[in-house]
Amino acid sequence: MWSASASLLSLLFLLLLPQPSLLYSLRNCTRDFHDSSEVFCDSSELTTIPQGIPKTVTYLTAAANHIVTIRESDFNGFTKLETLVLAKNYIKHIENGAFSDLFALNKLNLMHNKLTKLTDNMFEGLTNLTVLVLKNNKIKSISPLCFKPLGKLQKLDMSFNMLVNNSDVVNIVSHCPSLKVLDLIKFRFGVFRKNISVIGDTLLQSCSRLTDLKLTQNALTELSESSLRTMTRLTNLSIESNRLSIIPPTIRNMSSLIQLSFDSNQILKLQCSDFLNLQSLRKISLNYNRISTFKSCVFQDLQNLRELYLENNFISQLDGTISNSLPNLAVFNVSENHLRSIEKHTFFNMSHLTVLNLKSKSATEIQSGGLEGLVGLKRLTFSLNYHSGSVFEGLTLHLEALQELTIQVDKSACVYHALYILHGLKKLRVLSLDTICCLTPSNIFGETPNLINLQITNCVEISPKPELFHPITDLHILNLSHNKMKNLDFLIKANLTKLEKLILANNDLAVINETVFEALPSLKYLDLSGNPFVCDCSNAWFINWTIRNKQVQVVNAYQYRCSSPPTEEGHFLLDFNVQLCWEFTGFLCFISTSALVLVTLLSSFTYHFLRWQLVYGFYLLLAFLYDSKKKRQGCPDIYDAFVSYNVHDEDWVYKELLPELEEVQGWRLCLHHRDFQPGTAAPHSQFHQNAIYSSRKTLCVISRRYLQSEWCSREIQMARYGLTQVQSRFSPGSVQVYRTYLSWTQAQSHKGLFWENVRRALECGNEPTDNHNPLTANV
Ligand SMILES: *[C@@H]1O[C@H](CO)[C@@H](O)[C@H](O)[C@H]1NC(C)=O
Ligand SMILES: *[C@@H]1O[C@H](CO)[C@@H](O)[C@H](O)[C@H]1NC(C)=O
Ligand SMILES: *[C@@H]1O[C@H](CO)[C@@H](O)[C@H](O)[C@H]1NC(C)=O
Ligand SMILES: *[C@@H]1O[C@H](CO)[C@@H](O)[C@H](O)[C@H]1NC(C)=O
Ligand SMILES: *[C@@H]1O[C@H](CO)[C@@H](O)[C@H](O)[C@H]1NC(C)=O
Ligand SMILES: *[C@@H]1O[C@H](CO)[C@@H](O)[C@H](O)[C@H]1NC(C)=O
Ligand SMILES: *[C@@H]1O[C@H](CO)[C@@H](O)[C@H](O)[C@H]1NC(C)=O
Ligand SMILES: *[C@@H]1O[C@H](CO)[C@@H](O)[C@H](O)[C@H]1NC(C)=O
Ligand SMILES: *[C@@H]1O[C@H](CO)[C@@H](O)[C@H](O)[C@H]1NC(C)=O
Ligand SMILES: *[C@@H]1O[C@H](CO)[C@@H](O)[C@H](O)[C@H]1NC(C)=O
Ligand SMILES: *[C@@H]1O[C@H](CO)[C@@H](O)[C@H](O)[C@H]1NC(C)=O
Ligand SMILES: CC(=O)N[C@H]1CO[C@H](CO)[C@@H](O)[C@@H]1O
């Protein structure tokens, strides 16, 4: 019983345990979640193909690992596998029969490995293979029967290997009856032999089904007369970057050819028979050769040619050849040659031409009517020879379909006639003016209202007017590089509300002002490379905005450098610490705020404790002003003294004071109850003030009641705080204050002396009275 249950347990345990190999494979590979027949083992540091991958997979990739050897057993039983990717490993050796079970395999990718030779039984079993990629290995030799099993191979890429014996290529092609696309880029034909970089008649003889052949970078000097003759289906032939000096005659009569490229060879001239019978040819590329002339017969058979590229050659003259023999040409790029002039009617009958590039290494003279007939032209580029400014006179393009125009001048030119060039180009969307610098008159773009991309470059200091841009409200891209511009103020009023991309590289812009960007609401891309930035607080806004704004990408901003001040020269603009600028203004803010608070505090403190001194001071000031005004007007004082008293003391004033001072001593006194007119008497302080100012002196009759009454006490306090003595004289003419205190109670017994003292006090002119006069007394 015990042993029975134990064995049952162990059986259960065994059943529950997953297959160890599956567990192992799961560690290095993943199966596609949706399609379990696809397994990915890429970049897992594998040194061998993992065991336990289900044999039913159709797609397996183990790229970018450290596999060195493919063992015979690795793909045993993988009869459903269709694609196998083993690229980017260190595979040196593939054991015989390693692929023998892969009947279904369509694609095998072994690129970027270390294979040195392809052996006889290596590809055994790959009868269904259509694509084989072996590029970037170190293959030196191919054994004769290696490719024999690959009866269905259509596409082979053997580029970038090190073949020693050219005849090994025969071993490829003689067994691949289905091969259509053969890439032999940098295959090094004969590199290790003595300069025999020639493809002979027999080498590619069996490639009769090829449609695409690339023989780029093989140092080929020659292809024999019949070397490609069997390839009656070839459509694309590319023999770029070799050393051919003529168009190989073997291509003649290859009526299947559609695309032909001989870029970067050493071809010197084109001959009449070069393109004989190539009726299907649509594109010829002969860029980077040494062609200087061609006869009118050269293109005679190319009735279907659409694109002709002759960039970077030595062509100096185009005659009517192109026009007469290539009536269907759509793209003609003859840029970077040395075209001297374009004669009248050079393109006369070329109504299908849509792209024409005549950009030249040396400036071209375009003769009157030179661009006539190009009624369908959409893109035009040309370089002009600057002849005493008259160059543009005869040049009216009349190209109604034109959408893109690029003009270069060989030296900085003033285009007074740009208006004529742009005349009628209503459809123009892209305009590039290089070294064409006087942008006058300011309505030159009035003819081209649909411009969306404008480039004006290489001028010595342009400063466009905002009005220049007003007709082109759709502008999206503006490139004003290399113009020595010093400011961008014209953009503020240019009304470029749709501008998204602004390139201002290599100008003389030192400070970037935020108002410019307020006028460009759609801006997304800004290039200010190569400007001499000032790294101080004047660029603080720009620096912060560059780093923080979410709308505009300022390209290469982290590479912008400072040109000044000298202490910052050569440093990166964005390294400038703008925080200091904010802190400084913060400091100013702090100072001014503190000052304000302090003033407020002080004034409330002063108001609370020193209010009367202030009021007094205020009145003194008013008095001073009033007095100077009066002096200026020559107004005499109306009264000798203003008598301030409380109504309750009126009796005394009328009975004692008035009789003595007015009648006996003859002073003219102003009594506030007698002399104030009813209308002006209302606001006490105001009439009080006027009365005081109209009187030479002020005489206060001080009693207990006087001190209690509001406005009287104010006046007294005005006096008392400032003076500590009761004031009896208060000269508005001077800020100095003279005061005398005379006590009536003390003087009861000597009234005569009292009045005499009053008389003296009133009498004394503007000289201060002596406070130590024995007749005066301190309070
Ligand atoms: C060979 O590949 C084709 C697809 O290219 C496929 O339909 C066919 O079944 C494959 N043959 C074998 C034997 O797997
Ligand atoms: C190149 O291969 C051919 C045929 O395989 C052979 O006859 C010839 O000797 C080889 N040439 C060299 C230089 O190895
Ligand atoms: C071999 O090729 C080089 C480079 O093209 C050339 O300079 C040299 O003259 C050639 N030698 C022979 C013997 O053809
Ligand atoms: C060959 O030319 C055709 C037609 O011009 C083109 O569509 C195709 O992409 C070319 N093939 C290659 C491999 O360049
Ligand atoms: C090319 O074809 C013409 C006939 O169309 C023939 O006369 C001529 O010999 C052929 N040229 C070559 C080099 O095969
Ligand atoms: C024509 O040539 C110029 C200069 O090499 C090149 O920049 C341009 O892309 C070419 N144009 C076309 C349409 O390929
Ligand atoms: C333009 O083509 C017509 C025939 O289509 C021809 O008569 C005329 O001579 C050609 N003009 C030029 C300048 O090539
Ligand atoms: C702007 O113009 C300059 C000068 O011609 C050119 O080098 C640059 O590529 C242009 N930039 C863009 C984005 O078009
Ligand atoms: C500015 O452009 C807008 C359209 O983008 C246009 O409606 C407006 O009238 C223009 N304003 C001026 C002053 O040209
Ligand atoms: C920015 O430009 C405006 C308008 O030209 C100008 O008033 C302002 O002073 C400039 N600000 C700075 C910091 O230069
Ligand atoms: C810095 O830029 C950001 C984003 O443009 C802005 O919100 C912020 O107020 C700026 N800071 C200062 C101190 O100007
Ligand atoms: C078979 C094999 O190469 N397995 C590898 C799985 O991955 C680990 C590391 O992730 C390697 O150590 C094993 O060699």
Automatic annotation (TrEMBL):
| TIR domain residues | 637-762
Question: Can you supply one Gene Ontology CC term for this chain's record?
Answer: plasma membrane
Give the membrane topology, semicolon-separated if more than one.
Single-pass type I membrane protein
InterPro entries found in the cross-reference section: Leu-rich_rpt, Leu-rich_rpt_typical-subtyp, LRR_dom_sf, TIR_dom, Toll-like_receptor, Toll_tir_struct_dom_sf
Which keywords annotate this record?
Glycoprotein, Immunity, Inflammatory response, Innate immunity, Leucine-rich repeat, Membrane, Receptor, Repeat, Signal, Transmembrane, Transmembrane helix
PROSITE patterns under this entry?
LRR (PS51450), TIR (PS50104)
According to its UniProt entry, the protein's GO biological process terms are:
inflammatory response; innate immune response; toll-like receptor signaling pathway
Tell me the superkingdom of the source. Eukaryota
* Transmembrane segments annotated in the record for this chain: 584-602, 609-626
* First and last residue of the signal peptide: 1-23
Q: What is its main location?
A: membrane
Similarity field = Belongs to the Toll-like receptor family.
The name this protein goes by in its record: TIR domain-containing protein
